[in-house]
Amino acid sequence: MNDRARQATRLEAIGGRYDPWLLGAALALASLGVVMVASSSISQTASPFYYLIRHVLFLGVGIGLAVWAMRTELKTIEHYNQLLLLGCVGLLVLVFVPGLGQSVKGAHRWINLGVSNFQVVEAVKVFFIVWLASYLVRFRDEVNATWTAMLKPLGVVVVLVGLLLMQPDFGSSSLLLSITAGMLVLGGVNMPRMFGPVLVGLPVLAVIAIAEPYRMRRLTSFADPWADPFGSGYQLTNALMAIGRGEWTGIGLGGSVLKLNYLPEVHTDFIFSVIGEELGFAGICLVIALYALLVGRAFWVGLRCVEMGRHFAGYCAFGIALWIGLQSFVSMGVNLGLLPTKGLTLPLISSGGSSVLMTCVAMGLLLRVSYELDRAARQVALRGEALGDVPASADPAAAPSRDAAPVSATAAAAAAQVTAPAVRGTSRLRQRIEPIFERMA
């Protein structure tokens, strides 16, 4: 075996590790979710553990899907980005197919899988993030320089939003638009050009929001829920009373009164209110801290990937961070009376099979990003040591074994040829990305 082949073999043998902060935050939120689903749903059906058993089963399947995502190379996932986009459109159309699509309370958001209904928008969120991340990699320079490249993903998301509004699902539509805008900004889009679509889109969304009577009732009840506490303001008034009863430390796990058929959707949309009632202000702060850790660490991992030239991985991390951060903010804001009522669950905590499954897949993808980032850092450290740029003791975690064979000058030259373009590309991308983060600070 020649020196170059030996060097390649050593690089391929290097593994990575999953980010412990991401893994710990996700496990903590999922564990808290199991406890709170058990507590909040115990009086919802004749069988006190019906929703708990269902939630645990879906969580088990979701963990299996997460492990699969964690063990799948990102380049393999990126290869199927176009099929994933077609899957987004196909899934949103399937809900209108008679016999396959399921209607609940007048909304066509589910498809019948036989053993359970599946809310397709949850899969659309993951698929679309992967496609948009791939698009930003392939056209990152054009997105910053031309109108066409910037408007193409906006046109795609408008089509998806149109299908969502036909279901109707205004909450998920707004979330998908926000994720798209956030990923475009983090992908280096020209900000003055971005203002045009935003200025056009906001009035359109406002008109859509007030066009339906039920959405208008939500807006008016949000402004003053106590004006009609037994009608349009029923959900919010009960949610506020539940949180108010919790005070500083809560009334104790399992002691909620508002969950006893007073607060609707208590194990899904309004589970945060039960947390506030039973665990108090301390429990609310714990939940917010866990989400802040998860989302903040995801952004950090994404930024590290971008700095190392791993753009697809970085944009996937950005998209998942935006999704989890925005959805958790909206869900908690609704429970606290800060935002109008939307049908968005609290990620990893609320019951709901579709949400649990696809959030677990997203966490698996995010952990895979962290794994490949750590693996790439170790490989760069090995290359740097081969070139004499990084001493062996500079990064103990990234340093190769002392028993490894010495690297020849030929392998060092090959490593230099591999790393130099990535370093130059990273430098150019840093010059484009860093001003965006400085403006956001």
From TrEMBL:
Reactions performed catalytically: [GlcNAc-(1->4)-Mur2Ac(oyl-L-Ala-gamma-D-Glu-L-Lys-D-Ala-D-Ala)](n)-di-trans,octa-cis-undecaprenyl diphosphate + beta-D-GlcNAc-(1->4)-Mur2Ac(oyl-L-Ala-gamma-D-Glu-L-Lys-D-Ala-D-Ala)-di-trans,octa-cis-undecaprenyl diphosphate = [GlcNAc-(1->4)-Mur2Ac(oyl-L-Ala-gamma-D-Glu-L-Lys-D-Ala-D-Ala)](n+1)-di-trans,octa-cis-undecaprenyl diphosphate + di-trans,octa-cis-undecaprenyl diphosphate + H(+)
CC per GO annotation: cell division site; plasma membrane
Keyword Lipid biosynthesis: no
Entry membrane topology: Multi-pass membrane protein
Keywords (A to Z) from UniProt: Cell cycle, Cell division, Cell inner membrane, Cell membrane, Cell shape, Cell wall biogenesis/degradation, Glycosyltransferase, Membrane, Peptidoglycan synthesis, Transferase, Transmembrane, Transmembrane helix
Residue ranges that the Swiss-Prot or TrEMBL entry lists as coiled coil: none
One of the GO biological process terms: cell wall organization
Localization annotation: Cell inner membrane; Cell membrane
GO molecular function: lipid-linked peptidoglycan transporter activity; peptidoglycan glycosyltransferase activity
Highest taxon in the source lineage: Bacteria
EC number of this enzyme: 2.4.99.28
Transmembrane residue ranges: 21-43, 49-70, 82-100, 120-137, 149-166, 172-189, 194-211, 279-300, 312-334, 346-369
A Pfam family matched in the record: FTSW_RODA_SPOVE
Family that this chain belongs to: Belongs to the SEDS family. FtsW subfamily.
HAMAP family: PGT_FtsW_proteobact (MF_00913)
Known function: Peptidoglycan polymerase that is essential for cell division.
Protein name, entry field: Probable peptidoglycan glycosyltransferase FtsW
Organism field: Pseudoxanthomonas indica
